Amino acid sequence: MAGLPGAARARSASPGSPPALDGSFLLSPLGGLMGAQAVLGLLVWSLIAATTYHLHAAYGWVMFVSLFFWILTLLFFVTYLLQLHQKFYMVPWPLLLMIYNAVATVLYLTAFVTCAAAVQPMSWRQWDYNRRAAASFFACVTMITYGVSTFFSFRAWKGLGSNAATSQVTDHA
C-alpha cells in the first residue's frame, strides 16, 4: 500500500471516529493528480456543454465520459481526503483505484479521439469550433493524467517502493 496516504494507519482507524482531513493526501502524487483530473474534467464537460453538442451524437459520448468520471473522481477525492477509505477497510482500495484509473484512461482515450475527429474547422459557428477544439485538448491532457494515475495506483497496489521489512512493520503497527 505504498504510495497511498494513511496506508500505515489503515488498520488502526476506529470505525466510530469522525472523518478527519488528510493533509498528506493533498501533497501525494495521487492526491495532486486527482485534483488535476477534477479541474481538467470540469473544463472538458463545461466546454462541450457550452456548445450545441446535442446536435452531434459524438459529443454526447464525450459529455457522458467527462461528466461521469468527473463525478466519480470527486467522490474518490473526498473519500481519500476525509480518510473514509480507512472506515471501509474491507474494500481493496488500491486495486479499486487502479482499475478505476485504467478504465478512465481507456474511455477518455475514446472520448478524446471522438471529440478531436468531430471538430470541424469550417464550422458556421466559430465559437463552437473554438470550444470543441479546446475540449479535445483538455480531454487529451485529462487522459494523460488518468494514465499517470494508473501507474501510481499500480505501484501502490503492488506495494512497490517498500521492502518486506517495512511492509511487515506497517501491517502490524
Describe this structure as you would to a colleague.
By secondary structure, this protein is mainly α. The chain has 2 domains: 25-90; 92-165. The protein has 6 helices and no strands. Helix 2 runs antiparallel to helix 5 and helix 4 runs antiparallel to helix 5 (126-158). The protein is elongated, with a radius of gyration of 19 Å. The two termini are 14 Å apart.
Q: What is the 3D shape? A: elongated
Oligomer: single chain
What is the CA-atom radius of gyration, in angstroms?
19 Å
Count, helices: 6
Question: Mind describing the biggest β-sheet?
Answer: none
What's the helical proportion of residues?
55-70%
- Structurally, the number of domains stands at 2
Helical/strand content category? mainly alpha
The topology string of helices and strands comes to HHHHHH
Subcellular location: Apical cell membrane; Myelin membrane
GO biological process, one term: myelination
Subunit structure: Forms oligomers.
Pfam family, one: MARVEL
